[in-house]
Amino acid sequence: MSQAACFHCTEPVAETAKFPVNYREQTHPCCCAGCQAIAQTIIDSGLGRYYDDRTDAATQANPLPAEVLEQIRLYDDEAMQRNFVDQSGEASREAHLLLEGITCAACIWLNEQHIGRLQGVQLVSINYTTHRARIRWNPAQIKLSEILEAIAAIGYRATPYDHARAEAAWQKRHKQAQFRLWTAGLSMMQVMMFAVPVYLAEPGDIAPQWLLMMNWASMLLTLPVVLYSSWPFYQSAWRDLKARRAGMDLPVTVGVLAAFIASLPPLLSGRGEVYFDSVTMFVFLLLGGRYLEMRARQRAGAATERLVKLIPAFTHRLSETADGQRLEEYPVSQLRPGDRVVCRPGEIIPADGVIIEGQTEVNEALLTGESTPICKAVDDEVTGGASNLLSPITIRVSEVGDHTRLAAIVRLLDRAMQHKPRLAQLADRISGWFVLILLLVAAATWWFWHLHDPIHALPITVAVLVISCPCALSLATPAALVAATGHLATHGILSHRPDSLEDTAQITDIVFDKTGTLTLGQPALQEQIMLHGSPHHARELAAALEATSSHPLAKALQQEGCTPAQDITYLPGGGLTGLIDGEPYWIGHPDFIRANCPAPEPAPLPYGGTGTVVVLASATHWLALFILQDQLRENAAAAISRLQQLGLNVHLLSGDNRQTVEHVAGLLGISKHRAAASPEQKLDYVQKLQQSGRRVLMLGDGVNDAPVLAAAEVSMAMGSGVDISHAAGDMVLLNNQLTGVVTLLALARKTRSIIRQNLAWALLYNAAAIPLAACGYVTPWIASAGMAASSLLVVMNALRLTRARTGMQK
Amino acid sequence: MESLYLLIPLSVLLVFLIGLIFWWSVRSGQFDDLEGPGWRVLQDDDKPADTAAETKKNN
Prior knowledge:
The complex is a heterodimer of chains A (810) and B (59). By secondary structure, chain A is α+β, with helices and mostly antiparallel strands.
């Protein structure tokens, strides 16, 4: 490590780079002008302590292009602000911003300090967990764009968070759940204080007046639990009843209400047992389980939310003015058919349209799965969401909004999600029966004792309901799922739908998408075939020619720290030419070289395999062939063979061309594959599998996969994919390691067996305890202790999952 | 033992009081960010700005 690290982003600094900053009388190197400017801004504003406090490096800074600044200014527009700014106050406005580039707690400090010092900013508060900033400012003193620019000046990007309203609803529910849990917890603790002495004392030791008083106190404390904390149980039990189903919430409701009501006569008469402690403990345990589940789900949602959006918010629109044409920044949402927009290389095409000027290559991999760039010239149609690779084009917009191809895929996704096959869940099935039997037994008990000993009929029935412990039964599944979900998160797998784990255990077939899932989705240099001269020299020439291009094929040939060639011209036909040391060189597609370069073609070309061939030629010779190919992900082969060992059928389903798909399938040993499949055909393929009784796990990353992801029993989106596929996926593979799938399957099977153990235990316990209670042998404290012990056992068993060693062990 | 007449109602009252405090703390967002405030304590804002210190030294 002789190379110096950048002061700001800690990336290695090239020896030729000269971007020093002074901090505390020492000179530190920076890797680029962007990092230098930011470090200087931070130090100049007296916030240099950031560099002492931070625990993670900052992201590398790229200087903001002028049009981004222009876009930021568009946010000052009242119409734009209406979506995300709270304008209720006269002298203050409030907005939520999503901050990109936050790596550690020092970033939060830096941002709060920096924004807080701006004139006119009244409040800034940043949530470390969600990376969201709440900012209130006085519009008379400062504009929103100035705040956004200030954030950009220290190397972060802030985008308006326009889901604030949906978020507010969620926040309200979350806070309510939290308070319900707290209430139940507090009541439980205090009611126990009154109950335990009664359990411990010999009968008659406590004078009746104290007993009465303690019972009344318990009742008062239980009242909020019964009326407020358990409200969600009543609601969902009522919903189940209306739909003629028997869910777990029904016995919970019956248990809570029966135990509470049955405790009232003993309370009033001063004779008999009260069950207030059981009620509170019962509700607290159940709410605790649900709350944890809710948190786990929300954390998964928040992490994926930060990932990129497909369609940009702004585009460059050509507008006619008196003195000719002018290019202006324009919100994509306000584009109309007929508008003309300019799309530069490296940008995303904002809407469907026809090219009216320019020629380029576009990458539609996200939409179609086809990984090779496609040539587009004047009068060709382009699709919104594809990325422009080569040169600027002018597009006449033909479809916007709901009529675009992208929107059509989204609609397909919506339909597929509605038809998602739901597996009848094990716990639900068992608990449905259990509930029915339990209620029958309770009714029979009451009937029997009513005939023989009417005074004891109600207390004994309540004992049956309390000891039957729907608690362990309802905790059995969620506890295991939450523990497993938490464990998966440490392996980089986020699950939106915790119960998808249950479905995963029953998977028989795994369907992989190719581009971006099994492969990296970007070409890399695979082979270099020399025709003339030295290999090292040819490699350097290629890097120099391609140095400034943003084409994916060019990126594969770029090398760090090389001087770009002079006079680089992009020529139509897939190539470019440039001068190196005064000599002209050509690089590009073989056809392009044949057409543009005077050098004779060496016949025949010594290569006929798969992959894209790029030729480098001088004025006299063809120098080298570079074979570029989409690389397989690391571990892809290992993961596939492990999955096949586990007895799963592996399929490959891709929108890419036949030759490439067969090549990849051959490398990985996948016998079932299908190439050139459109989103509709992919959906059809998976549905056919499902009709033949198979259960499918689908892995994909593109927009074109989204409907299939939604249709599969369980779906997984790659973390590097696009937003929409995350929305459709049950899980997201954050670190893109395919071995994670093996871990997932192993853990899912283990989770299923733990759930079964838990259910078996709960049923066994009930089978033993209910007859005893029905015969009248159970006192309230035995009922409570039994219930608590069996719940605890179930939770402890579930916690074993967090220590599970699974996956790819050698 | 007569003190129990006071203590038992008092304990009930106390629980309701604590409940009220919880209600306030949940409502005012005390539980929204459980990581950030822990770090914030470690970052003093009242230290003199670095640039100020540096210019003084340079003079």
